[in-house]
Amino acid sequence: MAEFEISSRESAILIGTILGDSHLAMLKSGARLEVVHSEKQYAYVWWKYMEFQRVTSAPPHCLYISDKRYKKTYTQWRFKTRVNSMFTHLHHQFYSRKGKKVIPQNISSLLTSPLALAVLYMDDGGRRNDSYGVFLNTLSFTKRENHLLATCLKENFSLEARIHWIQDGYRLYIPSAYAQQFSELVDPYLIPSMKYKLPYNPVTTSFARLDRARDRRRVSSLL
């Protein structure tokens, strides 16, 4: 099967989604990209598919996942690419010998494009209800790895990021002071269904409405 050279745009999307929800699976012949999202992210799955269509064999398909514990059925949309040497090369950098996803030491030379940052945010980001700050759910990575990523954001995008511990692990938090800068950086690359995640709208030059009451209710429920 013919080998495709990955374009700079495809490479940026690839870096962002590897850091996020997507997975590089290593086969005998090399690695391939596997994309899986919930039904709510249907439009996002198809956007990714269209971006990688020339290296895929089939369009996204639907899977129904049954959870017997809660007697619920979840819908997922997924697709996979063909094996490519770029995927194999990135697998060596983003996965340990045991197959665990990691932040490579040279992340600052890989995560350089606002498009890559936007994809990471669409995959694993969100905004707070009690401030204009945004977060990246980098929970699967260690504190040291989160520090590498925070340093990358500072060096390549002039964004300050703090490492916060939540119940399941560490995640990166970008404070309200950088909300406008962050939004203007990634907004051109966000698909319409993901615009709700931004705390600031560069078109209307307005900030999102905060819901401190909901945040207080959430805190009260934990007491």
Describe this structure in words.
The chain is of the alpha+beta class and about 220 residues long. It folds into two domains: about 10-105, Roll (Endonuclease I-creI); about 110-195, Homing endonucleases (Endonuclease I-creI, Roll). Helices cover about 35% and strands about 25% of the residues. The chain is built from seven helices and ten strands. Strands 1-2-4-3 form a four-stranded antiparallel sheet. It has a four-stranded antiparallel sheet with strand order 5-6-8-7. Strand 5 (about 125) and strand 6 form a beta hairpin. Helix 1 packs parallel to helix 4. The longest helix has 15 residues, at about 145-155. It is globular. Residues about 215-223 have low confidence and may be disordered.
Provide the residue-averaged pLDDT: 92
> Distance between the terminal alpha carbons, to the nearest Å?
59 Å
Overall geometric form:
globular
Number of DSSP-assigned strands = 10
Task: Describe the structure using short key phrases.
223 residues; alpha+beta; Endonuclease I-creI; 2 domains; 4-stranded antiparallel β-sheet; disordered C terminus
